[in-house]
Specification:
- The protein has 243 residues and is an alpha/beta fold.
- It has a single domain, classed as TIM Barrel, CATH 3.20.20.70.
- Helix content is 36%, strand content 21%.
- It is built from nine helices and eight strands.
- The longest helix is centred in the middle third of the chain and has 13 residues.
Length: 243
């Protein structure tokens, strides 16, 4: 019997969530409530569409030629895919049997033992670290950053490739001291391939309004080019490849 899970949507030719052309499965449900989230419609686990691993694999295999040609694969995103760890584990296991590269896009807010069973079949982790400052992280997301830090250390020990994702939000995550502390920590990890700097945008604001949520960053602008370059330099100073 094929394991079932709840998904929000599927992007069949994604090019920004891992290498090459990818099928991106956006899972439903997230334990974080990030102030700048552009997919608040993925928060509630009971929403979305129920699908089986068999159904997903039938779709995914249609794009194998594109994946093979481009060095792509599948990415599980969200929401938080590790909230449905058994479902993602089975999906990734089936993908590995088909020779399909697997990437996990996660906030890392999960019990480490829960994550390990998925990581057994994971080729790349896109780890979204909101902030290294624990107080700011809690203010931003409503949860602790400790599980994320633990996961990052484990990925390094297990030598699982990591792409770090860092969202740059003016007056929140742009403080030099916090970024330097994060860069210093990341420089101690051995399997980081690069850091992706993601400038804040408000493209999801309309979703907050439609769902009746208060969008606290209504007056926040996108970061300036100067700010972006300054932050890139901090990561570069710690010998981290920055994109």
């Amino acid at each position: 019997m094929s394991i079932k899970g709840r998904i929000h949507s599927i992007e069949t030719c994604g090019t920004v969530d891992g290498p090459g052309i990818r099928v991106v499965v956006f899972t439903q449900g997230c334990p974080l409530r990030c102030q700048y989230c552009h997919n608040p419609d993925t928060w509630k686990l009971e929403d979305g569409k129920e699908v089986s691993v068999d159904e997903l694999m039938a779709d995914i295999k249609k794009y194998k030629s594109y994946m093979n040609f481009s060095g792509g694969g599948i990415t599980a995103s969200g929401g938080e895919p590790l909230l449905q760890s058994d479902f993602i584990k089975e999906l990734f296991k089936r993908c590995k049997e088909e020779g399909i590269h697997t990437a996990l896009d996660t906030s890392g807010f999960v019990n480490l033992n829960t994550a390990k069973k998925v990581l057994e079949y994971t080729d790349l982790v896109l780890l979204d670290i909101k902030s290294f400052n624990s107080k700011l992280y809690k203010d931003l997301t409503g949860v602790s950053n400790e599980p994320t830090i633990q996961l990052a250390k484990y990925l390094s020990e297990a030598n699982i490739p990591i792409w770090i994702r860092y969202v740059l939000v003016p007056n929140l995550t742009d403080k030099t001291e916090d970024i330097r502390d994060l860069a210093r920590f990341l420089s101690t990890l051995k399997s980081i391939e690069k850091v992706e700097l993601l400038p804040f945008h408000k493209m999801g604001e309309y979703k907050w309004e439609e769902l009746g949520y208060e969008y606290k960053l209504k007056d926040t602008e996108t970061p300036s080019n100067k700010t972006i370059e300054n932050v890139k330099k901090i990561f570069s100073d710690f010998k981290l490849k920055i994109q």
